[in-house]
Amino acid sequence: MFITSKIWVSNMNYERATASIDESLDKLGTDHIDLMLLHQAMGDYPGAYRAMEDAYKAGKLRAIGVSNFYPERLVDVAALAEIPPAVNQIETHPFRQQDAAHAVMAELGVVHEAWAPFAEGQNNIFANPTLAEIGSQYGKKPGQVILRALIQKDVVVIPKSTHRNRMEENFDVFDFELSEEDLATFSALDDGTLPRIFDHYDPKVVGWLLRDMVKQQIGGGSLY
Ligand SMILES: NC(=O)c1ccc[n+]([C@@H]2O[C@H](COP(=O)([O-])OP(=O)(O)OC[C@H]3O[C@@H](n4cnc5c(N)ncnc54)[C@H](OP(=O)(O)O)[C@@H]3O)[C@@H](O)[C@H]2O)c1
């Protein structure tokens, strides 16, 4: 078991993040969490990051990191933090492979973790003919090709399934290796046409999250 949790935007300052880490430990019934992430680069995230650093020093968190921190935000936190982020979890799947963001993470020594490696099933991903064609050479399914290709690109994958047989299928990706040619074919699936699942660059989407969701959760007021 490797337990990861995230600090949500409504807890994005020092005091709230400190309390939310203790609440997570309490709810999970454990004295430490393996990896804690800041969910978004929104609100007083430097304050929340300091709360994670203190919890790390206290042994409550074994590793700390961030999620949805695009390169300029990641450089900000990585440059100024006392304990650099170990991981950045961002939307990554065949149609959005995030090669540019990956290069920045590699330079900073931050592990790239993919959320929604199957694009949450969008774009008919499990019936994609290119993935099926690659998989047929190795006796593997499209989903397994995706996981294997991302792993070979040094991306940590966290596919989600509510079905036991699919979980087993998703684990069964360590007995084959895609060729350079197949990896190049996989990489070409990212043609930039699929809309982002969550668009952090769209002010409307960000405003909706902060004003409509987070303000309601904290009962108005300020996180600063
Ligand atoms: N940091 C963030 O902002 C953020 C945002 C979104 C998600 N996440 C995290 O990312 C992880 C996974 O993301 P996700 O659930 O959004 O998307 P995902 O893993 O890309 O896709 C999950 C979907 O794929 C299906 N699936 C899984 N394995 C399959 C298989 N072998 N064959 C066919 N269908 C399969 C699942 O259906 P069944 O369940 O019916 O099998 C489910 O509908 C989760 O841990 C989530 O918490 C993080």
Indicate the CATH architecture: Alpha-Beta Barrel
Q: What's the assembly state of these chains? A: single chain
What is the mean predicted local confidence, pLDDT? 96
Give the helices and strands as they follow along the chain.
EHEHEHEHEHHEHHH
Give the helix/strand class.
alpha/beta
In spatial order, strands of the major sheet run: 1-2-3-4-5-6
Percent helix, as a range, is: 40-55%
Using the CA coordinates, give the radius of gyration: 19 Å
Total domain modules = 1
CATH topology call? TIM Barrel
- Counting DSSP H or I runs of 4 or more residues, the number of helices is 9
For the largest beta-sheet, the strand count, sense and barrel status come to: 6 strands, parallel
What is the total tally of β strands? 6
Report on this structure.
With 224 residues, the chain is of the alpha/beta class. The protein has one domain (4-218): TIM Barrel (Alpha-Beta Barrel). 45% of the residues lie in helices and 11% in strands. It has nine helices and six strands. It has helices at 14-28, 45-57, 71-80, 99-108, 129-138, 142-152, 164-171, 180-187, 203-218; strands at residues 4-7, 35-38, 64-67, 87-91, 111-115, 155-157. It has a six-stranded parallel sheet. The chain is globular, with a radius of gyration of 19 Å. The model has no long low-confidence stretch (mean pLDDT 96). Bound molecules: NADP nicotinamide-adenine-dinucleotide phosphate (NAP). The site of NADP nicotinamide-adenine-dinucleotide phosphate has 21 residues, from helix 7.
